[in-house]
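Observation: inputs received (chain + LLP).
Thought: call the complex predictor directly.
Action: predict_structure
Action Input:
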Amino acid sequence: MDHFEYRNGVLCAEDLPLSVIADQVGTPVYVYSRATLERHARVFREALSVLPRVHIAFAIKANPNLAVLNVMQREGLGADVVSGGELARALAAGMPAGDIVFSGVGKQHREMIQGLDAGIGQFNLESEEEGIELSALAAERGLRAPCALRVNPDVDARTHAKISTGKAENKFGVPIDRAASIYARLAALPGLDMRGVAVHIGSQLADLQPLEDAFVKLGELIAEIRVGGNAVTHADLGGGLGVPYRAGDVFPSPAEYGQMIARVTKDWDVTLMFEPGRVITGNAGVLLTRVIRVKRSSNRTPFVVVDAAMNDLARPAMYGAWHDFDAVKPTGEKMTAHIVGPICETGDTFAMDREIDALEAGDLAVFRTAGAYGATMASSYNSRGFVPEVMVDGTRFAVVADRILPEAITAAERVPDFLKD
Ligand code: LLP
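Observation:
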């Protein structure tokens, strides 16, 4: 459930008509609802309250805006980070270092050192090589880095291939059949405190069964590691829970997810860790856009050309993703249209042959479920600059990320002297 609803015929974010934001900040603009962010964080936490020991680290790649992270921190969530930049953001948002988990297949030495210096809670190692390097860096500093070994369970998450991470051919984790021996070798190194295992099989999962299959395998691995004489006190079950992008779609609820995990992990005797992203922020944001014009050619489906484009919201172009599209002030009339942005490639298409609210030039509309993997995946392609972000709280709102104009991007570029003569 989210707090983007029609009141007196106008789509509002909480108690604020979206037209007010469009008038004051301009379009396109990402709009987040604080109450929805809080609600989703609480529902997720509540769903896991059936488990004995839990640590939730918000996957900040889904929405790294500092104001959003601040809400997460106030809700008691830590952070799952995948780069030095994300680590710095989590710390800047006030997240305690001990609540931060560092994931990612390509951690660089400077990033490992950044994590060690900050005293983060856990490194999720993606390979034996990475563990050996971290061991050396930590030992040099007289530290012991708390670590989990990420395993690849070879389970098909049955999601889009580009966001599937748990098949043997994917780059993530170590093969589960070699994991116990790798864990034992890493546990014997100085500078590492091998304390757990981690798994994340993919994102936007519509079905709990692949997760359950992966967790069952992880449980067997924990037993195998313990038989080998090593301790396992933590198990990181990753993120991945999907959200409905189309009104009426039904997804597994956080409560069902929590119950499945309680059943599968009942004998594990570990602290369970989670890295949810999309399920917390997805439906807490919309991309507000204005129709530039409606392009009609005789007897063909019209194109509704909006001022948002694939550089602002990449998901449709990148994954063929669906985002519901609704008018801010619907008239009750409908039309069938292609929804496109201004960028000069056909991939800049948000929807084809979609039945939508009838729109004309100047009308406002939203792409829903844009609070995860939206603004953060933006680029400046076609020299379009970066869209601002706004957070709404009741009837008030604040710009939580400025619009970055194309001029600001050009200002960072140089023509070298050798081209000046
Ligand atoms: N943990 C790890 C190690 C991850 O790689 C991810 C997401 C998450 C947690 C959070 O997953 P979530 O709960 O959000 O599903 N850009 C794509 C999604 C990429 C997900 C990458 N990893 C999209 O727009 O669909």
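Thought: report the result.
Final Answer: The chain has two domains: 4-31+282-411, 34-278. The CA atoms of residues 167 and 291 lie 41 Å apart.
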